[in-house]
Amino acid sequence: MSDVRVHNFSISLDGFATGAGQSADAPFGHAGERLHEWMFTTRFWHEMGGGREGGTGADHAFAAMHSAGIGAEIMGAGKFGPPGWQDDPDYKGAWGPNPPFHTPVFVLTHRPRPSIEMEGGTTYHFLDASPAEALKKAREAADGKDVRLGGGATMIRDFVAEGLVDHMHLVQVPIVLGRGVRIWDGLEAIEDVYDIEAVSTPSGVTHLTFTAKRR
Amino acid sequence: MSDVRVHNFSISLDGFATGAGQSADAPFGHAGERLHEWMFTTRFWHEMGGGREGGTGADHAFAAMHSAGIGAEIMGAGKFGPPGWQDDPDYKGAWGPNPPFHTPVFVLTHRPRPSIEMEGGTTYHFLDASPAEALKKAREAADGKDVRLGGGATMIRDFVAEGLVDHMHLVQVPIVLGRGVRIWDGLEAIEDVYDIEAVSTPSGVTHLTFTAKRR
Ligand SMILES: NC(=O)c1ccc[n+]([C@@H]2O[C@H](COP(=O)([O-])OP(=O)(O)OC[C@H]3O[C@@H](n4cnc5c(N)ncnc54)[C@H](OP(=O)(O)O)[C@@H]3O)[C@@H](O)[C@H]2O)c1
Ligand SMILES: NC(=O)c1ccc[n+]([C@@H]2O[C@H](COP(=O)([O-])OP(=O)(O)OC[C@H]3O[C@@H](n4cnc5c(N)ncnc54)[C@H](OP(=O)(O)O)[C@@H]3O)[C@@H](O)[C@H]2O)c1
């Protein structure tokens, strides 16, 4: 069966994947852009349309795993848009007219709406469904390829708790946020089900990979 | 002035420095010995009297900083003994007749008692005092050498919050404990006052060092 993968999911030392006070102007709340600065200096980011030319070192190698072999993404309502987007019937997501997904994207929300076709191969579908049901739909759409879980922390925790995630790549950034949504809550003893590796890189971040143990 | 240093302070991925349910038989509660296994395989630990011969790689290099140049330690009541030790007037600490400190040790407690002289140069003094006052006493006893903060997390957080800590070495172990005493609480934006480095080693842990920025 195809794999379920998490990539480039950035957290603070204290485990927060977003700060407090998310809004349209501050998608990560008081964290600002600090959780993702490590990625902005990679060639991967440049190839996604980002500014600088970027390096091809370890940060790039990890970041570039994001896209290969992915046939669909599942994301939470909090990644799709800022709090309250559900009240705007014309809202098309925080990711611009040509979103960086280029596959079907399943948005988990308790207030689903009709699908939206965007430029570049991204189509948003809205689902009010359990993690297992959502994954079934995404797998069908992915047509044999892997499914990426886009975050945020809330939905990733739910999928991990149900044993649905094969590979997870977290990037720990050396800041302490103190407030926000924490990835670790409810994941006690995750080391029993995943092999965990840690690799620090010269940019100062530590890449944590979680590979599901063969059951 | 002499430095205030934290060494070999081990935490889980989710930041817990001890598990829940501490007792005489389980000084780290449900964490067991997992927070310190990385240290048991170092030459440093062997030289402290531990079993195996131990390696001299990066884990050893970090661990061995523990003792050099230290003239006194300050520890919290929770490191001195299990919950309730204060009710036993003859209690002499969880660290055996010849404790591994070999200097004056100041134990912070709201129920102080007379000093206890142990073998090997360790003398326990008991203090009900603010961090700054306790540090003043420890500095006098250290006679120009550095002061080590022994932990647990509760007392280290208090000293960091008051800006009293010059160097901090944490060791992040790839387990998620879920419960216990967390180091990060109240340390938001610690990156503004410390230069932070991360180094992962082949044993799977990540050494985090915090060096106070020149003010
Ligand atoms: N650090 C990173 O790398 C990273 C990556 C992605 C996102 N983020 C950030 O993380 C934040 C969002 O994360 P988050 O944890 O707050 O939220 P999230 O995981 O994106 O979304 C959670 C929300 O999705 C809906 N939902 C989740 N599961 C559902 C289900 N099974 N059925 C129906 N609806 C479901 C619910 O919203 P409703 O009840 O409102 O429908 C729920 O509150 C944003 O700030 C985003 O920028 C960070
Ligand atoms: N992970 C590691 O590397 C590491 C290192 C050291 C210890 N530990 C573990 O951590 C645990 C203990 O940590 P902890 O955070 O629970 O407690 P702790 O920091 O050792 O001690 C906190 C206690 O010390 C007393 N205290 C602290 N500041 C004081 C002050 N200014 N004046 C008077 N009393 C003061 C208070 O006890 P009273 O009110 O009872 O007097 C307070 O509850 C133990 O399980 C230990 O094994 C782990």
TrEMBL record, chains A, B:
Record GO terms (molecular function): 5-amino-6-(5-phosphoribosylamino)uracil reductase activity
Record's signal peptide: none
Domain of life: Bacteria
InterPro entries, A to Z: DHFR-like_dom_sf, RibDG_C, Riboflavin_Biosynth_HTPR
Gene3D superfamilies noted in UniProt: Dihydrofolate Reductase, subunit A
One GO BP: riboflavin biosynthetic process
PANTHER family: BIFUNCTIONAL DEAMINASE-REDUCTASE DOMAIN PROTEIN, DIHYDROFOLATE REDUCTASE FAMILY PROTEIN (AFU_ORTHOLOGUE AFUA_8G06820)
Protein name per UniProt: Dihydrofolate reductase
Organism: Nonomuraea phyllanthi
Lineage of origin: Bacteria, Bacillati, Actinomycetota, Actinomycetes, Streptosporangiales
